[in-house]
């Protein structure tokens, strides 16, 4: 059985993933970008279909979705910066010993807790975005129903 190096053992014990694995935040950021582009295309399609000015509720929902998407993007950027800082700390941890190790471990734990809080906020924002998308779909369906009734009536 081969023994792990001290760095690998410490990384495993602290619950961090190997630096060779792709970043979860980068994947999430790419997903958010694609979703944002899709929402913008959807908004453009809706605007082109309706000659009338958009409903105020619909506009508010669209603005809220856009603001949440922007906030999520900003949080992902901050998460990437924090991950880079953590990687720097891990490198310092492997290069130094003694008191510095204890200090850096405490900092890592604090940063990990902050990252967990950001993840919880991110999850909450994702749920709210989903809810707003559902509301937007309902408002759009109602607008379309009213438009159909206006054409028929």
UniProtKB/TrEMBL annotation:
<dbReference type="InterPro" id="IPR038926">
    <property type="entry name" value="CEP55"/>
</dbReference>
<dbReference type="GO" id="GO:0000281">
    <property type="term" value="P:mitotic cytokinesis"/>
</dbReference>
<protein>
    <submittedName>
        <fullName>Centrosomal protein</fullName>
    </submittedName>
</protein>
<dbReference type="GO" id="GO:0045184">
    <property type="term" value="P:establishment of protein localization"/>
</dbReference>
<feature type="region of interest" description="Disordered">
    <location>
        <begin position="1"/>
        <end position="33"/>
    </location>
</feature>
<dbReference type="GO" id="GO:0051896">
    <property type="term" value="P:regulation of phosphatidylinositol 3-kinase/protein kinase B signal transduction"/>
</dbReference>
<dbReference type="GO" id="GO:0030496">
    <property type="term" value="C:midbody"/>
</dbReference>
């Amino acid at each position: 059985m081969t023994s792990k190096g001290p760095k690998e053992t410490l990384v495993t014990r602290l619950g961090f993933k190997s630096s060779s694995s792709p970043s979860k935040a980068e994947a999430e950021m790419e997903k958010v970008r694609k979703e944002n582009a899709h929402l913008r295309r959807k908004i453009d399609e809706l605007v082109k279909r309706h000659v009338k000015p958009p409903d105020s509720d619909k506009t508010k929902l669209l603005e809220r979705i856009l603001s949440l998407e922007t906030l999520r993007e900003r949080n992902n950027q901050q998460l990437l910066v924090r991950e880079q800082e953590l990687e720097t700390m891990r490198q310092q941890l492997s290069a130094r010993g003694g008191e510095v190790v204890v200090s850096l471990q405490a900092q890592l734990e604090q940063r990990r807790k902050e990252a967990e809080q950001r993840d919880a906020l991110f999850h909450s924002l994702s749920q709210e975005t989903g809810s707003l998308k559902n509301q937007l779909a309902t408002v759009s369906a109602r607008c379309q129903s009213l438009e159909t009734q206006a054409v028929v009536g």
